[in-house]
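Teaching assistant's notes for section 4

Start the section by putting this record on the projector. Ask students to predict, before seeing the second block, whether Competence protein will look compact or extended. Collect guesses on the board.
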Amino acid sequence: MENYHVKEHYIINPRTMALLPMDGLFGEHWTIIIEENQILQVKAKAITVIDDSCCFFGSSYIGRKEGAAALLNYTHMAPIAISDAYDMILFPLTSPKNRDCIWLSHKHIRNWQNNDNGTIVQFTNHQVKKLPIFFSTFEIKLNRAAQYRCKLLESHQYAQIAPPYFPGASPIDLEEWVLMKDNGMFEIREAENA
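Reveal the predicted structure now:
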């Protein structure tokens, strides 16, 4: 196959569509990475690829997992924001602790349909793959990932609501209002009653 590469390490990127478990040459836990235009074989577990990628973008798998749990109010098999800035939200089809856990990129799921105790997934590049997950279970996981993407977007929009100061308003005089005490701590000057 012309578009097939073997790598020692891999960082998830916006072209990453899926991570599939595979056996290495001697039974090691390796991963097949499906990108938009190529397939890669990585000599690492999927969870290692996930953690390395989270670290590359400034967090860790555990940190991203805890962040998702805080936003979604559930902890088991939560979607993970590898990088919300690049809209790289992946979700597991089983427990990430399982050897056979498959991870999919939410933004690369174009369509899905039921098929004999499995689900056929069509990716954004129009390629399809039958996956061993019940259709109803797949939809629950897909919807959780969509909910997570929406919550992340909402939190970004909320952070952008208030600019540093409103146009036309005078900036706050910090030297006048925020005072340093003798012990090195700060206090806000109380407004004088008019």
